[in-house]
Amino acid sequence: MSCLGRMLPQTIRMDGSRPPIRKKLVTNNYNPTFCRNRLYRLWIKLFYGPSTQVYRNSKRINVHQKYKKENNAQIIMEQQPQLNDHNKQEYPPMHTAEHLLNATMVKTFGCPRSRNAHIEKKKSKCDYELPTCPTEEQIHAIEEKVNEAIDRHLPVTCEFMTHEEAKSIVDLSKLPENASETLRIVRIGDYDACACIGQHVENTSEIGLFKIISYDYADGKLRLRFKLIK
C-alpha cells in the first residue's frame, strides 16, 4: 500500500548534538504514525488536512468509534426497564429487614403490609392496621420469625414484569398512581415477594439480628419500632 510520508525537522539538543534520526510518518488510509509531539501532530493536521488519521502511542484516535460506543450505550440504556426515580438513600440491611417484617405480619395476622414506615440505619418503625393489639407473646413471636428467616441465609433477587404479570404474585394496592409500566419485583427466597425500587442486601445473612425495641397500639394501628444488631 502506498502512503505519503514526510521527514519532520530534527531536534537539536542543548549541547548541540542531534538525537538519532527517526521518521515521523503520517499517512491516510489508517496507516500509523509515530508522532507523539503535540506540535508535530498539529502541524501534520494543517499540512495534510483535518481528515488525516493521527496516531498517538501507536493507537489511532477514532472519533467515529467513540460516537459509535456512546450510541450503543444509549441503545442499551433505552432497552433497560424504565422505573420510577427513587429519592431515598436507604440502608440496605434495614430496608430488607422491613420486607421480612412485612411478610411476617401478613403471614401471622393477615393484615396488609405497612403503609407508613420510617426506615433509618439506627432504628426504624412500621405501622400496621390491626383490629386488636397483639399480646407480648405475639410480638416476641414476630421477632423470632423474622430472625429465623434471616438465619436461613435467603438470597435476595430481582426480576422485572408488567402489572398484569405481577398482580398474581404481589399486592399492587400500595403502588402510586404514577407507577412505571414495568415493575421490579424483589424476592427474598421463598419467604417474600414485593414490588420495590429500594436498595437491598444480596443475602439475608448480611442483615444481622432483628430486635423489636418497643411498640404501641392506638386507633386500630400497631406501631413497631425495631433496630438491627450486628
TrEMBL record:
Cofactor needs: Zn(2+)
Lineage: superkingdom: Bacteria
InterPro entries cross-referenced by the UniProt entry: Alanyl-tRNA_Editing_Enzymes (IPR051335), Thr/Ala-tRNA-synth_IIc_edit (IPR018163), tRNA_SAD (IPR012947)
Protein name per Swiss-Prot or TrEMBL: Threonyl/alanyl tRNA synthetase SAD domain-containing protein
The entry's keywords: Metal-binding, Zinc
Gene Ontology process terms (BP): tRNA aminoacylation
Keyword Nucleotide-binding: no
Lineage of origin: Bacteria, Pseudomonadati, Bacteroidota, Bacteroidia, Bacteroidales
Residues in Threonyl/alanyl tRNA synthetase SAD domain copies: 183-225
Pfam families in alphabetical order: tRNA_SAD
UniProt keyword Metal-binding present: yes
Gene Ontology molecular function: any one: metal ion binding
